[in-house]
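Lecture 7, part B: from sequences to assemblies.

Below are the input chains for today's worked example.
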Amino acid sequence: MDSQRIKPKKVVCIGGGTGTFVVLKGLKNYSYKLNAVVSMSDSGGSNKRIRDEFGLLPTSDIRQCFVALADENGGMGLMRKLFMYRFEKGNGLTGMTFGNLFMAALSDIVGSQEEAIRQTGKVLRINGNVIPVSFTNTNLYAQYEDGHIVTEEHLIDEPEHDGKLKITKLYLEPKATANPHAIKSIKEADAIIMGPGDLFTSLLPNIVVDGIAKAIEESKAKKIYVLNLMTKYGQTYNFTANDHVKTLMSYIKIKPDVVIVNNTKFIPEIVEKYEEMNEFPIKDDLIEKDYADVVREDIVSEQIVEKSSSDKLVRSLIRHDSEKLAKVLSEIIG
Amino acid sequence: MDSQRIKPKKVVCIGGGTGTFVVLKGLKNYSYKLNAVVSMSDSGGSNKRIRDEFGLLPTSDIRQCFVALADENGGMGLMRKLFMYRFEKGNGLTGMTFGNLFMAALSDIVGSQEEAIRQTGKVLRINGNVIPVSFTNTNLYAQYEDGHIVTEEHLIDEPEHDGKLKITKLYLEPKATANPHAIKSIKEADAIIMGPGDLFTSLLPNIVVDGIAKAIEESKAKKIYVLNLMTKYGQTYNFTANDHVKTLMSYIKIKPDVVIVNNTKFIPEIVEKYEEMNEFPIKDDLIEKDYADVVREDIVSEQIVEKSSSDKLVRSLIRHDSEKLAKVLSEIIG
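Predicted structure of the full complex, as structure tokens:
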């Protein structure tokens, strides 16, 4: 027996969207004890139906985390593919994801959505835990600089108003209570990874849950913020790197220990495509001494991913690279 | 190395409905090489939607066989439960079974329904093979003694006409070609088990597929017919045991080697419930010498199963007992 044996470090990823997917997919190959704290305020498409017709909380973000952490070996690759599958046929089925239906059926069988989520992790033999940030049935609200208020996550994500407007306040109504497992995992973590991902619809919807910001502030973990690659119309229009960090710091009252920024240039043709949608590469105006550390690395995927209607996961052309990002993160976490 | 090692006997069960479920569930605990040859002409409910909206062949009978043969240990019990699950919520989802949606999604992912069925068996770690009798997109037709013809399996099963009418001819239109794997499994079998189950909507829909009757006739296997317990209104109204065997023998041109008949009495209160639906215990008028063997045993489940709308499997009150029937079968098969 080796009493000096090193315990695996506890790493918590906070988010829920494609960005968290990329982080988890990369880090699952390292020997960390991985926990994903995932937002539960999605409201679009499949989620809306899970909420309205099944009376359950939305599970699309959870589904993505499961796919990221799922065992890909042997027959399990197929279950993983099924979990990503979106029905394109069937009256009333088109647009529904298999993964969400799987969790809805399981919730009915085992009696609660919380237990269903736990069991789903077992079925997919995930390497880590997927922890819903809250089980409160709540809605996300955003107030903009002109004073108007928008509710429902998908309308914040894809605004029907002028997307250049700044969000001045993000909150949940009714107030959401944090899942005790989320609080515990944050408090006990050696490292907390925030982002990448949509600031106002993936990362901050976790942090505005009662108790989560406080847990992050009090945690002794190394707090790492992975900056996005592009601004997002409707959320972070014209935001520089500094704007991102300042916004995050207005929701948690401490500085992150490390900010990870990409330092490679993008292919002009792809940048042009983004510009058509009013989205731009984030300008790196971070000043080293403002934070404990700014890590600048090539963390961009070389792969050019075409858009597809059948899989929400492949909708960006400029994306973080799972392996590159995981390598940088592992060097920071140790 | 032991060259005298006994190879497991090859057993083929032909059918598809609840009766086949009971046989498979019992026999999976024996060391046989089990093959289920399953009808593909279901047309009601979930099946109709799988046919019309997904352009796939109906899979409800296959689903039941998967559930019967599925690994029930460890985490697998949950997958088995999911496979039985029928949605009771969700616009356009109510009445759909999870198992059928699973196979529909998988058919799209792997490119064919045949491959999807094979892969499903792997995911559920079934003990045996589930072999669709045919991949021809066909419909079941029944002609009655008054000359009128009904199409679609569910209208034969639950007739809108006088259910006392005898079916004089059962056929598929267009003609269905047998799945070569079904033919092979029947030809190589040591034992073929036909029934129990609805004669005209579970057992015979397999036998009217081109090539299946001939394969049974030519097979050197011991042919075992497990008689039903009750007559069925619309199919076998007033049929005696002898009527059942004679009907089967009009579709396969040989006698079965063994007929298994239940010899216990039923609880009068339950029989009365059946009588209200014009269904009666089958009168045993079999004469020993007419067949190679008539085996009379207690093969009835003591369990009284209440009806439930959520699970097609538990709709009979008088049912065969999996374990008792498997024991009797194993003594015959050897």
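Note for the exam: Strands of chain A lie at 10-15, 33-38, 129-132, 139-144, 149-151, 167-173, 191-194, 222-226, 258-262, 293-297. Keep this in mind when comparing with the next example.
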